[in-house]
Amino acid sequence: MRIEYHRTLLADRVRNSAFYAALRSAIVPGKTTVADIGAGTGFLGFLAAKLGAARVDLYETGDVAELARRLLKHNRLPQARIAQVHSTEVARPDRVDVIVSETLGNYPFEENIIATLNHARSHFLAPGGMLIPRRVEQFVCPVISERFYRELTVWDEVGFDLDFTAAKTMGLNNIYVRWFTPDDLLDRAAAALVWDQVDFEKHNKTTRTGEAQWHIARPITIYGLALWWVAELVPSLTLATGPLDQRTHWEQLYLPALSPIALSPGQICVARLRSTTSFERGTNVTWTLLACDGAGRQISKQALDLEKGFLP
After folding, report:
1. What is the distance between the alpha carbons of residues 36 and 87, in angstroms, rounded to a whole number?
2. Rounded average pLDDT over 4-13
3. Residues 52 and 149 in one domain
4. Domain boundary among 57, 85, 102
5. N or C: which end of the chain has fewer CB within 10 A?
6. In this predicted structure, what is the pLDDT of residue 2?
């Protein structure tokens, strides 16, 4: 059990305050029933109990469930109960009015929240019930700062008449957790576009695809893509991980280019993204960067695949 990971979650006051506000708006004391799916140490389920939920069911498959039991007993929350099982393995769960699941990663779906909430919505949620979060939008923006790319291409500087190009290529077919400043991004992050939207109140595919394009107004060089997300927890309450948002334990993701892409005014940059996530195989992401002329004709193409970034 990685207790340090759970410490970082509980140290994230932006995250904790947002979910507290969402639960407070959703719970009618003495009436509302709640399920906390992927409960970890039990924090969100405990908040629901403190806010007066009539019953709180916590589901956690990891060993941290035993710690959550100890914490539950210590905090004297008799209306809460913990099952050490993955929610998708529960055959006949008691239905609840509110499902809360904070199983979001730097890449939002890497912990299989789509499949988890697809199942929970149909098996756990009572008629008229609500999910927290309600939806997630994914944003993408070109990276124009060289420093991230330069960090990953030190393979070119090994020297001694040795060529480590194959290692560099593998490294560039990878995704990196980074924190960007506005100056690192096209138009100081104002150029960020939505490439994917998931509404958890509906059934969603676990394979996500999307595209974004930018018409270039000044000479620039693009070194890859930055990704982040915005989650709507309840109406009018969001939690965001972008470079202009309050900092959380989540950061942005850097998807490198294979080589810098120099663009002139009038040209177009196109990004195509695809991710697949499953309980069995984890998450894979592919990204393609195209440079096109003003008429949309392709000038260059770079295709990268996270699976190529790992040793066989």
Report:
1. 10
2. 96
3. no
4. 102
5. C
6. 82
Q: Are residues 92 and 150 in the same domain?
A: no
252 phi-psi bin (left φ>0, alpha ψ -120 to 50, beta other): beta
Widest Cα–Cα separation across the chain: 73
pLDDT of residue 1: 59
- pLDDT tier, 310 (very low <50, low <70, confident <90, very high otherwise): confident
DSSP three-state, residue 31: coil
Residue 109 has pLDDT above 80, yes or no: yes
As beta bridge partners, residue 207 has 276
For the segment 14-42, the average pLDDT, to the nearest whole number, is 98
Buried b (16+ CB within 10 A) or exposed e, 187-221: eebebbeebbebebeeebebebebebebebeeebe
Expressed as residue numbers, the domain containing 161 is 136-309
Q: How far apart are CA 196 and CA 138, in angstroms?
A: 5
Do the domain assignments include residue 108?
no
DSSP code of residue 92: S
Other Cβ atoms closer than 10 A to 231: 23
Q: What angle do CA 231, 237, 239 make, to 5 degrees?
A: 35
d(CA 168, CA 73): 51
By 3-state DSSP, what share of the chain in percent is helix, strand and coil, each rounded to 5?
25, 40, 35
Quick check: is 115 in a domain? no
Q: Taking the C-alpha atoms of 167, 169, 173 and 179 in order, what is their torsion angle to the nearest 10 degrees?
A: 80
Q: What is the CATH number of the domain that holds 171?
A: 2.70.160.11
Euclidean distance between CA atoms 38 and 112, whole angstroms: 10
Q: Is the torsion defined by CA of 261, 265, 266, 271 positive or negative?
A: positive
CA distance readout (Å), 211 to 18, 161, 237, 256: 30, 41, 26, 16
Length of the chain: 312
pTM, two decimals, is 0.96
pLDDT tens digits, one per residue of 235-252 = 999 999 999 999 999 999
